Amino acid sequence: MYLTLFNNCTHLVHNKDLKQITEQFLSVKQTLLSERLHVSGGFYAGLKH
Questions:
Q1: Euclidean distance between CA atoms 6 and 26, whole angstroms
Q2: Does position 26 have pLDDT exceeding 60, yes or no?
Q3: pTM for this one?
Q4: What is the superkingdom listed in this entry's lineage (predicted)?
Q5: Distance CA 40, CA 34 (A)
C-alpha cells in the first residue's frame, strides 16, 4: 500500500515541485538549527540577525 502511495506521489511530483519541497525542507532544517543555536547560544543567534 505504501509503495503504491509512494509511486503515485513520485508520479505527481515534477521537477519544480521537487525543488519547492527541497527548499521547504531546507528552510525547516535551517529554522530548527537556528532554534537549537538560540537555545545553546542565544547570544550568537542574536548576533547573526
A1: 21
A2: yes
A3: 0.43
A4: Bacteria
A5: 10
